[in-house]
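_Per-residue structure_
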Amino acid sequence: MKNSILITLAFLVFSGFAAKAQQTVRIGYVDMEYILENVPEYQEASAQLENKVQQWKREIETELNRIEKMKQDLANERPLLTSELISDREDEIKFEEKKILDYQQKRFGPNGDLITQKLQLVKPIQDQVFVAVQEIAKNRDYDLIFDKSADVITLYAADRLDVSDQVLRSITRASNREELETRQEKRELVRQEAKTVEEDAVLSEREQLQQQRKEEREALLEERRRVRDSIRTAKKEELEKRRQEILEERQRKKDSVAKAREENRNN
């Protein structure tokens, strides 16, 4: 359905261009996948995300193995346990299974961390590509530039129409400008630190206000981090407390059964 809409739209665009008598239509395309492969910042961030993904998978595998061992232990000990103890063990296993299922959804679900962080990685590059394409189209009189790697069915595209390298060069220039601005900011910081006491005393009200706002933002972010960490710690402690209560109750029942058996033997 999506492809048919895009094809229809392309047909209408080309029809409009064809209606312009004796006018040359300039068309180009970009390959988003090719661009992403050649942006170092994206590749570095992707590698970091992949490391996170592997860590998440290891954590899940470890928990699944632990739960499987709990099931095996229960199967081995079932003949020696009362129905109440068996029920408690089964409840604990279900609790652990739900917990790991929730974690899997948090990391790999439709709205999980993996999808969210992938989108966060791609969006800045997409924004840069959009700006670069607008600039190239305006400066070189392109009538249409489309993404070859998108859902539009491309049966053939001549290499001479590919403006991906031009887009990459534009992104690189923008990155270099940002790096230059960063170096200028560092030089400005050195200059500010070299000011005399008298110069420091005449800092403008605007600079002081900017510094105050910056400190307020940092304090707000720190408070949010503190609250978030506090909530996480409380949840973790609650889970551990519940688990400990289950273990203690299981042990009390074991002791009770053992005591009853001992008294029967003595009688």
Summary: The longest helix spans residues 205-266. The two ends are 81 Å apart (CA to CA). Helices lie at 2-18, 32-37, 40-77, 83-108, 113-140, 164-193, 197-201, 205-266.
